[in-house]
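[09:14] KT: can someone run the structure on this one? pasting the chain below
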Amino acid sequence: MSYPLALRLVAIYSRRRNTIHDATADATIAAAAATLSRAYRTRPDPAATPAELVITTHTPATGPAGTSLAELATQVSDGGCLVVVVPADRGHDRSTVLTDIAAAGLMPLHCIQAITDPAGVTGDRFTYHTPDRDPGTAADPTAVTHCWLVIATAPHLEGGIDA
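[09:31] RB: done, C-alpha cells below
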C-alpha cells in the first residue's frame, strides 16, 4: 500500500495516541502510525489494551495470514475496526473473506478499493463499496487497484447492532 493510502487508512480508522495492531508488520503502515501519533504493535498481546485498528491480510485460497480472524477480533477495542487486506488479484471474489469475517463474529461495514495512480493523474485514493456488490473496474485508465480493504467491526460492541 502506498504511503498516502496508509496515512488515509490510519487517519480514518484510528485516533491520535490510540493503538494500531498490524499483523502484517507493514513498514508503510508503521510509518503512517508514527506520523499520526498512533502506538504501533505487530504481535497479539492479551495483556495490552485492545487496539482501535487491527490490520491483517487474507488470501481467499488460504485464509488469514498468521493469527486467525477470531483471535484478532479479540484485539479490537470497543468501537474499533478490523481491516482485512485482500490482494488486488483476489479482490473481486470477497465471498470467502466475508464468510470468514462472519465466522469470527464480526460484521462487515464496507469494502474499499485502494487505488494507486502511477501516472500521477488522479492521485492515490479510496473508493468505497458495499460488501455484497461487485464494483467492476476503475474508470480511470491510469488507475491500478493496489488491494482491497474489507472493514469490519464487532456487532456486540457498544453502539453495534446487538447493543
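[09:33] KT: thanks! DSSP finds four helices and eight strands in the chain.
[09:34] RB: yep, looked fine to me
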